[in-house]
Amino acid sequence: MRLGIRANLAQFSLLVAINALVGGMLGQERTVLPLLADETFHLTGYTFLLTYVLAFGVTKAAANYFAGTWSDRFGRKPVLLAGWLIAVPVPLILIWAPSWGWVVAANVLLGINQGLTWSTTVIMKIDLAGPERRGLAMGLNEAAGYLAVAATALATGYLAAHYGLRPAPFLLGLSYAALGLGLSAFVVRETRGHAQLEAAGHLAPGELSDREVFVRTSVREPALSSASQAGMVNNLNDGLAWGLLPILFATAGLPVSRIGILAALYPAVWGLGQLVTGPLSDRWGRKWLITAGMFVQAVALAGVALADGFTGWAVAAVLLGIGTAMVYPTLLASIGDVAHPAWRARAVGVYRLWRDGGFAVGAILAGVVADVWGLRAAVWVVAAVTALAGLVVAVRMYETHPRRTSELRAGTR
């Protein structure tokens, strides 16, 4: 048993592919569900429309936490399998849903699926990669997931435009669930032993209670808690992009096919960009890449609020994708840098609890502001919150990459 991406290339590559399927399960909703709410179920209030994002965010956040604790207790593979079993009914419910309540129920299951499967693939890749190339590992993981989100959002937009909003777009999700379950059951191998191998090389004691891990990651440890709040705000603005921006584009008169392009453009740039930003954080460090990424996101959201046509929104979507790519894998890598291998899976779970809680916070905040002051006001508010989160990282977080930290210390002597 050895640490490193190259030493574990077959299993690492398999887990990248499985995370692409996880992302595809999320992507089946990005274009179609806001339109389904409007055209099929005739929902009028933005807050009520965003109940599916709220349901998804709350359940995914909770599932992230339990994915971390269960991965330490029972192993990684059983948690991954459980997540895929829960995924199977989701597209079937979306196809046959007679009312919006069924759609919300499907998103409860989708949130559990995403929390268990995505968290576990993150944990397993950190186990395999070892300390030196965590940024690259997380860049590959998140790139696969969000490129699949983008490709599926684009494909479902095409299917919806040509064959209707149901059932064709969701048959794609059903195939993802079947393939993910089969690969996880028969090909994936357990990786907890790799974390135990890395822990054996640490001099510091690693045993902490679940409560201690939660408090340390949420509040007490500056880098971990800074990453947790930045992750929450990042997914707050992603919840806005998912739930409200397609409605903004539709009210401007854009056809479904063009809305599908915009829905796919942001996660596509996000996904591809992580292939660059993940390894870049291994060379440059984590802190300032995260800080700059949050500010780029804020500028992009301001661009969405100011634009009034496809070209302007496309430019803003590209910029939003770039900013998110700077932040997303780098935050995960920083958690892996700081957390001891003995409680790292739980720290990842707590971080992802806060990060994906941003979907719920974003659904409530953006929905209420949109109902009271309009869609563009909601975008402006989220842009301001994102800029504030970047400022918190700049002030409170320290550099976490082991090599960059030692270089900075050497430079101050």
Automatic annotation (TrEMBL):
Q: Which GO terms describe its molecular function?
A: transmembrane transporter activity
> Which keywords fit this entry according to its UniProt record?
Cell membrane, Membrane, Transmembrane, Transmembrane helix, Transport
Looking up CDD domains in the UniProt record yields: MFS_MdtG_SLC18_like
PANTHER family linked to this entry: INTEGRAL MEMBRANE TRANSPORT PROTEIN, RESISTANCE PROTEIN MDTM, PUTATIVE-RELATED-RELATED
Question: Which species is listed as the source?
Answer: Kribbella amoyensis
- Give the record's GO CC terms: plasma membrane
| Domain (Major facilitator superfamily (MFS) profile): residue spans on this chain | 8-401
Membrane topology label: Multi-pass membrane protein
Which segments cross the bilayer?
A: 7-26, 46-67, 79-97, 103-123, 144-164, 170-188, 288-307, 313-332, 379-398
Name by which UniProt lists this protein: Putative MFS family arabinose efflux permease
Q: Where in the cell is it found?
A: Cell membrane
* Record has ATP-binding as a keyword: no
